[in-house]
Design brief:
Layout (H helix, E strand, L loop, with lengths): L8 E2 L6 E2 L10 H15 L7 H6 L14 H28 L11 H4 L2 H18 L6 H16 L1 H5 L6 H16 L12 H5 L2 H13 L11 H18 L5 H14 L9 H19 L9 H16 L4 H15 L7 H14 L4 H14 L3 H5 L10 H27 L1 H6 L1 H8 L14 H21 L3 H25 L5 H6 L7 H23 L2 H4 L3 H13 L5 E4 L15 E4 L5 H9 L1 H9 L8 E6 H9 L5 H13 L3 E7 L2 E6 L14
Parallel strand pairs: 3-4, 3-5
Antiparallel strand pairs: 1-2, 5-7, 6-7
């Protein structure tokens, strides 16, 4: 298995990892190394200074004098620092979640609701991580523990605070799984409605249905609130394997992991096919980078090809976009000299095309005209349309926090590429993978989400080079190590010839010169800023993502009452259980309609909605649902404001055409009365 393999040690300057078989030297490599001299030759290994080399400069324990009695408490305190900082951060987090009230969220979401102890905990955690990861005396276990602490504070906070799962999309996915469990099948290809995409890519839902049965729970809602933490943990192993392909410098590896999770604010870690497909995508890249390089040899390739086939198949049957991103990344790697083995690319393309031309063909045939029209229209593909523009102080502020966070990480990545010359050679494949998703802007808008998906697929490579920008120049560190060793060896040779005691040992025994304070504290401030900015970027819109229990109960009443063939009319789909019983109940979200029709609803709400809802055949009924989640989504995304939505609600309440079914503080439910006919059919929904 990939996780059991010994990390690859990089070869000199060629960027070739050392696996079980030593690579054949290229012609002229010895002459080139001699011409470069010791400084540049050492620089080629700069990103792979292992911990044992960091300790090599320290004097042997036996020859070092024992610490003075007064120094022992200081050393004990220093040794306990990682544990103390980590435990203090988690204690602050636990205190904060116990004293945070989410019953009244404003437009800043969780940002203003969190207890101040949470922010203090993040500062302590980040500071402890940075000081620990830079200390050569600390093992990698501490870095791993701090990253786990970060994931708990980032991804588990919402699961602990909110009594119901977040995101309307997660509830929709639960509905698909529920249908699969109750009917034993997904919708057929003859019903290519709003849910057709899930029928054509059922891998994730089939796996979750099996998991629900295995756990013995009623539905996926029992655990999907914890899915962001689970899916983030799934990313950790392939991410480490990818980074360890190019370096064994633990500072670089773990700082890159930290930056990846901090900058991954897009929210695709929720309960969705994308979350699993992205982890599998990184797994495929890890296998290709570590086992299909030019010097990897042919031993065991059949086993890795089988594993590759399984991973690619799981991606292809689960998600629409990720296979395309994977193929683009493999094409880029195949163009690099080290990865001319075409097996991974051919495997991915064949499986992808086979699925598209068979199981997914009905959906693709219907969507093909729109897909063709969007090719090459980069401006439209990255443009946000009506209903996706942040509106209001809170929404705008959190949106800018996310933009600044992403922009800062990308700028740091550029600085790392320019600053660390050796990494441009050694980690060139990772740089190519980071740039590979950019052409997808020309392929499709992906429902106005392409810009977010491209950012997410760029992030593994971008985080690596951004981490390199925060660390001292790796080449200089290695060059100094090589020069110290060479100076000591020369001194020993001269002293031995002269019959004098070797002074090289004294040279090696001198303590290393401490890094300048700016090299420690300036990167720490950058790391702190990014870690703190994650919270508004990730949780700043929780007002529209969180549905309190009373809203869930109201919507549940709707589906408990609605007969088969009923119609549910709502402002938008931002409410829990929005797709519950989608196989027997139709939906109409009027804010998704043409803007002219939306304006007509605002002018004459009850009459226009009654015309839209007319024509439902018995025993079906037509329901009008308006909830706080719909209002928050409409307000914060630049659709209708609260005053307009309140006017619609009051018009329906006063109309003799509607009867109230249920109401609570989270919303209201009305039904169109039997036999109620609007005065005119003009302006009915298309």
């Amino acid at each position: 298995m990939p996780g059991q393999e010994t990390p690859n040690a990089p070869g000199p300057d060629t960027g070739t990892p050392v696996t079980g078989t030593a690579p054949r030297p290229e012609a002229g490599s010895a002459h080139e190394a001699a011409a470069r001299g010791p400084r540049e030759s050492a620089g080629a290994m700069s990103d792979d200074v292992p911990a044992r080399q960091e300790h090599a400069a320290e004097p042997p324990a036996a020859s070092a004098p024992g610490p003075a009695p007064a120094a022992r408490p200081a050393r004990a305190a220093s040794a306990a620092l990682p544990a103390v900082a980590l435990l203090a951060a988690l204690a602050l987090w636990a205190f904060a979640v116990r004293h945070t009230d989410v019953s009244r969220l404003d437009d800043y979401g969780l940002v203003t609701a969190l207890h101040p102890a949470f922010w203090a905990g993040l500062v302590v955690l980040t500071t402890g991580f940075w000081l620990t990861v830079r200390d050569p005396r600390r093992g990698q276990g501490w870095s791993f523990a701090y990253v786990l602490g970060l994931l708990v504070m980032e991804r588990a906070t919402q699961a602990v605070l909110y009594p119901t799962p977040l995101y309307a999309w997660a509830w929709k996915h639960d509905a698909v799984i529920d249908h699969l469990l109750t009917s034993g099948r997904l919708q057929g290809a003859d019903r290519l409605g709003d849910m057709a995409v899930y029928d054509q890519w059922p891998g994730f839902f089939a796996a979750q249905a099996a998991l629900v049965r295995l756990l013995g729970v009623d539905n996926a809602a029992a655990y999907m609130a914890w899915w962001p933490l689970v899916s983030s943990l799934m990313l950790l192993l392939p991410l480490l394997l990818v980074y360890r392909t190019f370096t064994q410098d633990r500072r670089l590896i773990w700082t890159a992991v930290w930056l990846f999770f901090v900058a991954n604010w897009v929210g695709q870690d929720y309960f969705s096919p994308q979350s699993v497909a992205f982890a599998l995508h990184l797994g495929v890249l890890a296998v290709v980078l570590r086992r299909y390089g030019g010097s990897g040899g042919r031993q065991g390739q059949a086993v890795w090809t089988v594993l590759l086939t399984v991973l690619v198949t799981a991606i292809v049957v689960s998600h629409q976009l990720t296979p395309g991103m994977l193929v683009v990344s493999l094409v880029v790697l195949a163009c690099a000299r080290r990865y001319r083995d075409w097996v991974p690319l051919v495997t991915a393309v064949v499986i992808f095309l086979a699925w598209c031309l068979t199981a997914a063909l009905p959906f693709l045939s219907a969507a093909l005209p729109d897909m063709i029209r969007s090719i090459g229209d980069v401006g439209a593909n990255v443009e946000t349309g009506y209903g996706t523009t942040p509106t209001g102080t809170g929404a705008v502020a959190t949106s800018w926090a996310a933009r600044l966070l992403s922009g800062s990480v990308l700028l740091l990545a550029l600085a790392g590429v320019l600053r660390q010359r050796v990494l441009r050679r050694r980690a060139l494949p990772l740089l190519l993978i980071a740039a590979a998703p950019l052409p997808m802007f020309a392929a499709s808008s992906y429902g106005s989400e392409m810009i977010f998906r491209v950012l997410m697929f760029m992030l593994p490579g971008a985080a690596f080079f951004a981490a390199a920008a925060l660390l001292p120049k790796v080449r200089t560190l290695a060059a100094e190590t090589a020069e110290t060793a060479e100076t000591a060896e020369t001194a020993e040779t001269v002293d031995a010839a002269a019959g004098r005691p070797a002074e090289g040992a004294a040279t090696r025994s001198r303590p290393a010169v401490s890094a300048p304070r700016a090299a420690v504290w300036a990167p720490l401030l950058a790391l702190l800023a990014g870690t703190l900015a994650f919270v508004p970027s990730y949780s700043g819109k929780d007002r529209l993502s969180y549905f309190p229990p009373r809203e869930v109960a109201l919507v549940q009443q709707l589906f408990d009452r609605a007969p088969e063939g009923s119609l549910v009319v709502a402002a938008n789909r931002n409410y829990p259980l929005a797709h519950e019983a989608y196989w027997r109940v139709d939906h109409y979200w009027f804010l998704d309609d043409d803007r002219r029709h939306v304006d007509e609803i605002v002018r004459d709400p009850a009459a226009t909605l009654a015309r839209d809802m007319a024509g439902v055949e018995r025993p079906g009924r037509a329901y009008f649902l308006l909830t706080e989640g719909q209002m928050a989504n409409s307000e914060m995304n630049g659709q209708l404001d609260r005053a307009q939505l309140t006017r619609i609600r009051e018009s329906v309440a006063a109309s003799p055409l509607f009867a109230r079914v249920a109401e609570n503080s989270a919303g209201v439910l009305y039904v169109l009365k039997p036999g109620a006919e609007p005065a005119s059919r003009e302006g009915s929904r298309s």
